[in-house]
Amino acid sequence: MNITLEKSSNVNAKLIVAVAEEDYKSQVEKTLKDYRKRANIKGFRPGMVPASVVQKMFGKSVLIDEINNLLGSSVQEYIKENKLNIVGDPMPIQEDQDAIDWNTQKEFTFSYELGLAGDFTVDFDALPAVASYEIQATEKELEETIENLKKQFAEQIHPDSVEDGDMLFGTFSQGEWSEKSAIPAKAIKDEAKAIFVGATKGATLTFDVDSVFVDEKSKGLATAKKGDDIAALTGEVSFTIEDITRAGVAELNQEFFDKVLGAGKVANEEEFRKELSVIIEANYKRESAYLLRIDAEKSLVENINIELPEEFLKQWLVKVNEGKFTLEEIEADFDAVKRDIRWNLIKNEIADKNEIKVDYPEVVEKTKEMVRGQFGMYGNAADPQMEEMIERIATGYLTDKSKKDNFMNMFNQVYADKIAAVIVDKVKVENKAIDVEEFKKLAGA
What we know:
Layout: E1 2-7, E2 12-19, H1 21-38, H2 51-81, E3 86-92, H3 94-98, E4 108-116, E5 130-136, H4 139-152, E6 156-157, E7 167-174, E8 177-183, E9 204-208, H5 216-223, H6 228-232, E10 236-247, H7 254-261, H8 269-303, H9 310-320, H10 327-332, H11 334-353, H12 360-374, H13 384-399, H14 405-426, E11 429-435, H15 436-444
Parallel strand pairs: 5-11
Antiparallel strand pairs: 1-2, 2-4, 3-4, 6-10, 7-8, 7-10, 9-10
Helix pairs in contact: 1-2, 4-8, 8-14, 12-13, 12-14
């Protein structure tokens, strides 16, 4: 096999693949022999079908399949070995394929259009400085935080009847199916809360499962269903309430100070407020860090020039979307497409230079963080039962065979976080003092 690259510009090229008979002959013969062993053809005993019959019936299709497999692996290997920075996918030149006579030819030539990204470097020193905002907390933010902490660190009580906002633990059942689970209040539609409010521990509630939960995701998390099983769960279900958890009312006393900050950290309310102000500023610092990440990424895209094969990309997008979008529709959104492509090229360059890798335990932990967010304050409680449930839901989410994108989505989030950490570490920063209201406007812009 001979592969050559013909560049017509910095960003456009043709890949020509010449396939000789010796490149595919042995594999085709091996496959046909296997067909002969397994062929079940009327008039012949199994394994005794003449080779000429097998060749006549299957030879052409086997040849096409083997050459296509050979082309796919060889083209990708060539691109990888030669470190071609391609955008889109190699596009076969149809005229070359249409001219092939599969019945008589022994040697074949295939051509592919390639789109290449122009050469570029990620030079952080050449980028302009990015603003990093230092935020001062005011008395207003302090009072709002204290009220939120009073709710968060209140003692959890286990009342005998349900009120709005309670977390319910119990068992779902329908026919032969049953599942222990938990229902957070925010998973229930407002108009369905009357089904639960007032119900007592030990009661069995019957309701239409599709009319209770705010969306399919909440339904799946509450019932521990996944994939197609979520949609398949319809009609009336029963839920037996086994426990009710509710946040009590916390008071500003030493016990509360110790819960929030740690035992003995402060001795009175004045010290508590002072220490809390420091924490609030640290929280805003995290928000500021996130905005810095967004602005730094934006700076990279806007200041690193990458030449792209625009006409190739438009034609490739039309083809890969199989007619879902017209060329005019693609052109209307093409600036955003180019931006995404440039950003992906920049990310890949940073990841390659910094040897960024993602391990499975990191993906699991990221998924557990997502699940904790679904349960709100209850998900953050140091409750072994809740932690076990979060672990189970996270593992189920990642291993759901009907939603194979779940794992890759979480993997990509971890990957993006690691790239962002490198960017923020290397980009030049200009510190700016700003009040909370100004920052909120910037963050929401």
